[in-house]
Amino acid sequence: MKTAIQALILITSGVVFTGCGNPALRYVGLYSGTGTMTMSFDSSSGQQSGTRQLAGNVNLREGVSSDLVYDDSECQIPFNMDDADSASLVPGASCTGSADGATATLTYTNGFIRFDEKIVTVTLNATVTVTKNGATVVGTMTEDLTLTRLTK
């Protein structure tokens, strides 16, 4: 009888603990990314709208207060896993950078990462706030990327 109870405890503890851990860990690694970024501003703003090609490396790393962090060395964007094959942007994520006397802040409105066996797709949408010489212009940004894993 004692052996049967011990076996039952082992079986049920295996069931309870099987799903534990961060499901994002299997996607952590260095990726090569290509895609497009489109910025749109009101034509009266004087800020140029357009689409540009993107290429470079991206790190997907384990987060501290999120499951996963998308890190392109300029921005670190937190995501939480929705299920085993997708993640959604953590609300409130933002990123600020400066160039040519202007400061731009991206406030992410939504974003998704979809994981396939070898290819990862990333979609990011944000409000863009650009400040230069005391003037502020607001627009939108959409980024669509395809990532290929380089290392684990």
Overview of the structural elements:
The chain has one helix and nine strands. It has one domain: Lipocalin, CATH 2.40.128. It is about 10% helix and about 60% strand. Strands 1-2-3-4-5-7-8-9 form an eight-stranded antiparallel barrel. The protein has one helix at about 1-15; strands at about 30-40, 50-60, 70, 75-85, 85-90, 95-100, 100-115, 120-130, 135-150. By secondary structure, it is mainly beta. The protein is elongated and about 50 Å long. The longest helix has 16 residues, at about 1-15.
Query: Count of helical segments?
Result: 1
Order of helices and strands: HEEEEEEEEE
Compute the separation of the termini in Å: 46 Å
Strand order of the largest sheet: 1-2-3-4-5-7-8-9
Rough shape? Answer: elongated
Q: What value does the average pLDDT take? A: 87
Low-confidence stretches: 1-19
The name of the CATH architecture is Beta Barrel
CATH topology, which one?
A: Lipocalin
Count of strand segments? 9
Helical residue percent?
A: 10-25%
Q: What Rg, in angstroms, do the CA atoms define?
A: 21 Å
Q: What is the class in the CATH system?
A: Mainly Beta
Q: Structural class of the secondary elements? A: mainly beta
List the domain count as a whole number: 1
Percent of sequence in beta strands? over 45%
